[in-house]
Design goal:
The protein is α+β, with helices and mostly antiparallel strands. Helix content is about 20%, strand content about 20%. The chain has two helices and five strands. A five-stranded antiparallel sheet has the order 1-2-3-4-5, covered by helices on one side. Helix 1 runs parallel beside helix 2. The longest helix has 13 residues. The radius of gyration is 16 Å and the shape is globular. The protein starts with 8 loop residues before the first helix and ends in a 17-residue tail after the last helix.
Amino acid sequence: MATFGHITRQRCAQLGHALTAAGLAWADNGNQDRPELLTYTVTDPHGRSWTVDPATSNQIAPSRPASLWQAVCTDPFHRSPVMSARAIAARIRDFPAEQDSAARGAPQPPA
């Protein structure tokens, strides 16, 4: 069974500061005392919603102990690798807007 002892209040604060510094709107569900239930909801500059969750112990590489977070966006689907707080914030902020409107089902102009 995975443990979440690596997620501390300080690590949660670091994520919040990184998201704020990146100019992202975010909220958490208030479960810092139960990190297995902790979730952050982040809105990127294109209005997409991302979920950021703590990685489980088996996802954390001993050589990268600060890489504790994973982000998921469903539109378009994207799952980040496990990353540090600053890297997750940058990934969400810099994730490109979808270029191909056909992929989103938007009508195409007549040729």
